[in-house]
Amino acid sequence: MQFIRQAQVCSRFLRLTMARPSSDMARFREVFKLSQRLVVLTGAGISAESGVPTFRGPGGYWRRWQAQELANPAAFSANPSRVWEFYHYRRELMATRKPNAAHRALASCEERLHAKGCRLVVVTQNIDELHHRAGSKNVLELHGNLFKTCCTVCQDVRENHTNPIVPSLAGKGAPSPDNQDAGISVEDLPRCQLPGCGGLLRPHVIWFGESLDEDIMTKVFEELEACDLCLVVGTSSLVYPAAMLAPQVASRGVPVAEFNLETTPATTSFGFHFEGPCGQTLPVALAPFE
Ligand code: BJW
Ligand code: ZN
Hints:
With 290 residues, the protein is an alpha/beta fold. It is built from eleven helices and eleven strands. It binds ligand BJW and zinc ion.
């Protein structure tokens, strides 16, 4: 009996202390109005309304594989042709996709803040370049870039927007499950052009089990330490180290607002949570003041 009473007191205490995040937009706008340094952490959900598939959930399959099954070094070693087909599909898809209202809201907010000596930085897990295409200038790419390659032999990194990146990938990469692997021989996959190298190229992205770029992480930590407001947009907050960044900011008492279709494992550590498509919620949240 004593134990049950203690448990009831405990659970009441927990309910009182773990306040639910607020969805009061007027209150958020008051905080935003005073903010001088914003960091916005974005994930696949911000590009969903542009028609770019997210990773987890029903749209996250390419053929019979979830994206995570292909976005790892073992998958590339075992079948570089299949993994290149997957990235070739995504490179071609981006030619038909445009930034949406959420990307544009961030870009125009950055410009407005910059004009009055303030700062907004986008820290994105996305590799699709939609923030740049919307006009954002301060963008830190945590997981690499779909339009860069890295040589597996000499590590040379370079930009490449040519589609197809090699003739052998032309017409390949169709996403439906009934398509078979193209089985392109490794000599016909993208190769390093540096004299004397010729190594196999890979997409310059961060796969599971790989470390994130140290220089980028240093910049990210500097921005997070200096920020007075943080937004978390369209990420499931399941993938580390990205998933720990905003909760760390919140633990220092800095206001954090999440914009997502649903709650995530990180939601309870944030002060604000705005549920719904970020193409609708973010432009309202970041609208200019009269
Ligand atoms: C909307 C919306 C709308 C939809 N509006 N919202 C600590 C604990 C446990 C594990 C680990 C740990 N530290 C490291 C690990 C291992 C691993 C990891 O995190 N595993 C977890 C899955 C458990 N991490 C790593 O391996 C990282 N490396 C590392 O830490 O190195 C050191 C180390 C290694 C090994 C052990 C320990 C330390 C590297 C992670 C690299 C992730 N790479 C990928 C692929 C990039 C290239 C590519 O794109 O192909 O990055 S995986 C994939 O997930 C991609 C994404 O950037 C990332 C995050 O996904 P994201 O963006 O959150 O998308 P979704 O689909 O998950 O969510 C979409 C969200 O949007 C949802 O919430 C929707 O509701 C929402 N949404 N429409 C608003 N309109
Ligand atoms: Zn090379």
